[in-house]
Write a structure and sequence with these properties.
mainly alpha, 67% helix
């Protein structure tokens, strides 16, 4: 037999969230009082905190925007350099696995390599 999923009104959720946030009671104790799972109530509280934090976030000033753009540009450059370094390390690892002169090449590595 399957259990039907309960649905809660927005007012019910708001009341439970208000009690958790305003009081010194735990999510588990409020959940027991309202006959809901603590993890369910905890997710409601977390969503509420995220939503209210976004509303309270101050607008970004012009100087901050310029700094953010500068940091994003620098971040992109560093990502490119990291990719380049990873590829170089990968290629050096392959070359050293093939031996100092490559696969039977007569010239010393890294000057020439036969494929």
């Amino acid at each position: 037999m399957t259990r039907r999923r309960r649905q809660f009104s927005p007012e019910f959720k708001d009341e439970a969230i208000r009690i958790v946030l305003e009081g010194d009671r735990t999510v588990a104790s409020v959940g027991r009082e309202f006959d809901i799972n603590a993890s369910t109530l905890d997710s409601w509280v977390n969503r509420h905190r995220i939503a209210t934090a976004q509303d309270e976030r101050p607008p970004v000033s012009g100087l901050d925007r310029a700094r953010i753009r500068e940091l994003e540009r620098e971040n992109a450059e560093l990502r490119e350099k990291l990719i380049f370094l990873k590829i170089g390390r990968l290629l050096r690892g392959r070359a050293s696995a093939e031996g100092p002169a490559g696969r039977g090449a007569s010239t010393p590595w890294p000057l020439a390599r036969r494929v």
